[in-house]
Backbone:
């Protein structure tokens, strides 16, 4: 079963199996093959014709009565390697004696409640609308077998009348609608008999609908077949097959002209969205353009971006010569990324951008230039989009996406691109820029450093111990994505950071009176109008909460970091800190309000400790002083503090465990293709990779260390093989281990060193659906990155795909 209905009275569910995706994914070229969908409606005669015309044999139900609530999908086997594969959907229409689909559905199917069926007398309508509303936007031909339907020709007229009243509803061009073929063995054979039957059908249809039906004549054809005689079934239905394929050719040409002939991959995705639309809304038309952008929507802030961009130039000059070409090319890149269907540009513009641009260019929302100048300023435009930027020697700034899409991929590392020319001014750079990108399925390592004046020597010594424990010539920056530090020389004060404003240096040592004069010359006063107040920011113990907030903002799809290392400067307690001078009012910014806010922030830090303290991903490394810790400006104690951090035995075991976690974080996992659902499980393959490539310094040392320490790959708790196994390396010598996926949606991959506790690789444990999203495997209509997604059949041989179908 492909589609079905389940329920009784006025409560129905739509059941959708994975049959369509299974069929299309096993075509040899699903991204370029454009299938034809032929829908056959009937019972026994339909089954005989389907086998005679296309070689598809259907098993009849034991009761002999076809299920009116089920639609099955087949692929004509002789067309699977053609540019036009033929998909065959077959089922029966509603009748009062049909069996009811059970309330349970296959494991690989999903169930959706049809919310618009809470009315009386919906049995016939909901069954018919599976064809007229759900399948009509994609079908070339509907073939009705009169001999199998209640009432014969009158039954066909009743169903077509229902279709005219309730569907199809999709934004298809008028000349791209499917056509109808009516098959009968009781009508007089020949051209005259077929013409008379067609006239009778139109008359019945006009009587049922009470509307003019002459315009429907071009969409309806009649085919008569010989009764069951000595003629073979193949000869009996040869004329019907020829008529169906000829009509399908005409409909396909109309869809080519209307730019709505889709590839097999796109058909599967659009029909999946059409099922959701069918169950949720009965009156709204199904928008093909909007559905194609469901996983890659137009940015919500496009209107504000265009308003800000155009408002910086004059409409008479830069608007035409600069602003409009930039906006037009940007919209074109957004509308047609690699893999997108080439819809009519007018339909795309009207459906996606027209309303936003009309509002952006309205007089009410268009701002004037900041200084009334008549030239397009060269600064500030990079702030229109939140992304990573790279400044080139020519003075232009490029976002990471453009550098990644238009740079030259490195032959040594798939996540490194080389950028040697500015694409805005065509200037050749004096030195080719090397840009490294974070793999989308890799996790994030976080280091948090406490502030603390001269006590920062403790953090530095602990960092040194970590690097020495790793024993590899690999910089710490390859393990860590985010470094988070505090206690800067100055801080901008608005409202939230006020609790961090305390003088750092009090009570120890003598300072000359003229200290700080050079800073005063650079920063006059303690408050800058429209910017904020500036004071020395105080230390914050264990700023994990703030660091995790930054991680969430930068990596919104990340469930949790691979590891969070919080390095202290010694256990901190309030000492003889002097009061800070009130700069902007005692009630709002005095010591008491700031102490109150500081208290609540410290409580937040304690909550983070309570939340992460029991997790193996959080590591707090600190030393403990006997008595009060040294003051922040007590320079003579630096040697003693450094010695304490270097030799503290309490740090040995935590650093050893952290080393194993950091080494495991160098490995990540990617799916090879979109997994298939089989028996309620997700089945497929993936690849475990290493961020350190063979050409890099430290690669040989890394795997020598892992091999010496007997490190094994553990998948879902079961050992797979050693990291240094010969099957773990490709022909180029880089680490690449194939891993089979067979789970209910969750996968764990870890490295186990000897008998120690296993450490998850980067981002493990994995949610399979999230991996699909991160890699864009389900973005069949393209994504914002201009590199095409990995094809679902890229690693599958034609023989394997043919066998699977």
Residues:
């Amino acid at each position: 079963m492909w589609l079905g209905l389940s329920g009784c009275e006025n409560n129905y569910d739509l059941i959708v199996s994975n049959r369509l995706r299974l069929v299309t994914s096993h075509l040899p070229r699903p991204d370029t093959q454009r299938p034809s969908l032929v829908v056959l409606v009937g019972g026994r005669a339909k089954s005989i014709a389907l086998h005679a015309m296309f070689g598809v044999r259907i098993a009849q139900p034991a009761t002999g009565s076809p299920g009116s609530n089920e639609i099955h999908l087949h692929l004509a086997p002789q067309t699977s390697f053609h540019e036009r594969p033929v998909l065959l959907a077959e089922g029966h229409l509603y009748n009062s004696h049909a069996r009811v689909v059970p309330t349970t559905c296959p494991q690989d199917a999903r169930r959706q409640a049809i919310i618009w069926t809470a009315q009386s007398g919906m049995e016939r309508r909901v069954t018919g609308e599976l064809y007229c509303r759900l399948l009509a936007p994609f079908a070339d031909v509907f073939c009705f077998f009169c001999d199998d339907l209640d009432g014969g020709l009158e039954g066909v007229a009743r169903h077509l009348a229902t279709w005219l009243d309730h569907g199809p509803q999709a934004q298809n061009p008028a000349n791209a609608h499917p056509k109808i073929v009516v098959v009968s063995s009781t009508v007089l054979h020949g051209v005259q008999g077929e013409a008379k039957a067609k006239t009778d059908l139109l008359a019945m249809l006009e009587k049922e609908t009470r509307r003019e039906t002459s315009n429907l004549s071009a969409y309806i054809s009649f085919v008569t077949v010989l009764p069951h005689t000595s003629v073979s079934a193949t000869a009996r239905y040869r004329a019907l097959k020829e008529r169906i394929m000829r009509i399908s050719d005409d409909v396909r040409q109309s869809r080519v002209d209307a730019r709505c002939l889709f590839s097999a991959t796109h058909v599967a995705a659009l029909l999946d969205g059409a099922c959701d639309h069918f169950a949720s809304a009965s009156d709204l038309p199904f928008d093909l353009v909007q559905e194609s952008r469901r996983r890659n929507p137009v940015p919500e802030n496009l209107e504000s971006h265009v308003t800000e961009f155009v408002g910086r130039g004059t409409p008479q000059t830069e608007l035409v010569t600069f602003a409009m070409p930039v906006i037009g090319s940007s919209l074109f890149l957004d509308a047609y990324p690699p893999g997108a269907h080439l819809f009519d540009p007018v339909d795309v513009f009207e459906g996606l951008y027209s309303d936003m641009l009309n509002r952006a260019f309205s007089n009410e929302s268009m701002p004037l230039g900041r200084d009334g100048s008549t030239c397009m300023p060269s600064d500030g435009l990079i702030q229109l989009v939140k992304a990573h930027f790279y400044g080139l020697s020519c003075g232009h700034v490029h976002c990471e996406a453009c550098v990644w899409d238009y740079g030259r991929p490195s032959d040594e590392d798939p996540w490194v691109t080389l950028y040697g020319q500015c694409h805005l001014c065509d200037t050749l750079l004096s030195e080719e820029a090397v840009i490294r990108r974070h793999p989308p399925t890799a996790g994030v390592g976080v280091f948090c450093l406490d502030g603390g004046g001269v006590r920062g020597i403790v953090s530095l010594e602990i960092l040194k111990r970590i690097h020495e424990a790793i024993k590899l010539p690999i910089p710490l920056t390859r393990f860590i994505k985010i470094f988070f530090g505090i206690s800067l020389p100055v801080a901008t004060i608005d409202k939230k950071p006020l609790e961090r404003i305390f003088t750092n240096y009090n009570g120890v040592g003598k300072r000359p009176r003229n200290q700080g004069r050079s800073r005063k010359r650079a920063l006059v006063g303690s408050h800058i109008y429209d910017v904020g107040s500036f004071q020395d920011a105080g230390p914050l113990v264990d700023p994990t909460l703030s660091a995790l907030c930054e991680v969430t903002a930068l990596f919104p799809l990340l469930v949790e970091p691979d590891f969070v290392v919080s390095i202290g400067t010694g256990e901190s307690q309030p000492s003889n800190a002097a009061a800070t001078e009130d700069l902007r009012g005692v009630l709002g910014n005095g010591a008491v309000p700031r102490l109150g806010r500081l208290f609540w922030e410290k409580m937040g830090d304690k909550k983070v400790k309570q939340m992460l303290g029991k997790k193996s991903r959080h590591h707090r490394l600190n030393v403990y002083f006997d008595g009060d810790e040294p003051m922040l400006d007590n320079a003579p104690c630096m040697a003693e503090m450094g010695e304490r951090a270097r030799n503290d035995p309490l740090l040995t075991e935590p650093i050893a465990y952290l080393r194993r976690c950091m080494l495991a974080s160098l490995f990540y996992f990617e799916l090879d293709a979109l997994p298939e659902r089989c028996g309620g499980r997700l089945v497929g393959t993936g690849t475990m990779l290493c961020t350190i490539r063979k050409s890099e310094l430290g690669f040989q040392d890394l795997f020598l260390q892992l091999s010496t320490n007997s490190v094994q790959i553990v998948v879902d708790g079961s050992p797979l093989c050693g990291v240094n196994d010969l099957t773990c390396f490709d022909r180029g010598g880089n680490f690449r281990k194939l891993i089979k996926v067979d789970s209910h949606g969750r996968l764990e991959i870890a490295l186990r060193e000897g008998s120690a506790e296993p450490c998850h690789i980067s981002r493990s444990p994995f949610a399979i659906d999230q991996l699909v999203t991160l890699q864009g495997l389900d973005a069949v209509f393209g994504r914002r990155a201009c590199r095409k997604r990995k094809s679902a059949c890229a690693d599958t041989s034609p023989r394997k795909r043919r066998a699977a179908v």
